[in-house]
Amino acid sequence: MEKTLIYHYTSLSHLIEIFKTGKLLTSQTEKMLKVKKPGLWFSSNSNWEPSAFKRFNDGKKEFDLNTPEEFEKYIGCARIITKLNPLFVTFAKYKHKSKVNPLLWEKMAEIGKSKGSDTNEWYATFNPLNINSLDIEVYENGNWISLKKENGEFDTELFNRNLEKTFVYKRGKEMEEKMMEELKKQNPEINKEKEIELKGEEVVEEKAEEVVEEKAEELVEEKAEELVEEKIEEVVEEKVEEAIEEKAEEKSKGIFSSIKKLFEKK
């Protein structure tokens, strides 16, 4: 019997970071929140996992990216695929295996359901996964397309094509061009050959990763705090820990109200 496929939905910007480390890591936010065994989250939903939404700031306003189409437009959309195996636990079992605070576990479910998620489709593992052992797909024009060619090679054309049409990439290029103009004003003796070298296609290709990592990261981190791609990282912030520690003894609606306000600010 064929095993069930499960999916980790993320952005192209975050996928670059995954390639750099070579691994898909467990939740950094859960570590910050002192969860004893942080999870790495997947979903059995083969179309889209609603809880993978991200809070985004385009420089004018903040809003949620809720669909793969919105991801594709602003930060690029990708998913990492593996087969369900005994290393994964259900969301229900995660509560006990991870020793997560019950209030946080309930809030995760509450927010996920508010976005249209089915927690029965959620699966977590507690160990990083090697990216080389996983399949990767990019969302393009309504379709999920494998990032690996038939010969196993990385499809750089597909990746770059989708990266370059994103809002964060274009904003990064705009910032780079402004920096170039400032450089020209401050250094009028820069010769034509140097200018062409700096603006040539070769440099653009070499700087593509840098543009996304530095410029896009700066845009998102400064104005939308952080482009997180893991399920918990999208819905929980550092102040949740303070809310839990200060009000855990109350066990009343007060703590849920406090945490809810915290998420609304995000």
Describe it.
The chain has helices at 12-21, 28-32, 68-74, 91-97, 102-114, 156-164, 167-186, 192-199, 201-223, 231-235, 239-247, 253-265; strands at 5-10, 23-24, 40-43, 54-57, 62-65, 78-83, 89-90, 122-125, 129-130, 135-140, 143-146. It has 266 residues and is α+β, with helices and mostly antiparallel strands. It has one domain (5-235). The longest helix is centred in the C-terminal third of the chain and has 23 residues, at 201-223. The chain is globular.
Q: Which secondary structure elements does this structure contain, and how are they paired or packed?
A:
Layout: E1 5-10, H1 12-21, E2 23-24, H2 28-32, E3 40-43, E4 54-57, E5 62-65, H3 68-74, E6 78-83, E7 89-90, H4 91-97, H5 102-114, E8 122-125, E9 129-130, E10 135-140, E11 143-146, H6 156-164, H7 167-186, H8 192-199, H9 201-223, H10 231-235, H11 239-247, H12 253-265
Antiparallel strand pairs: 1-6, 2-9, 3-8, 4-5, 6-10, 7-8, 10-11
Helix pairs in contact: 7-9, 11-12
Give keywords.
about 270 residues, alpha+beta, disordered C terminus
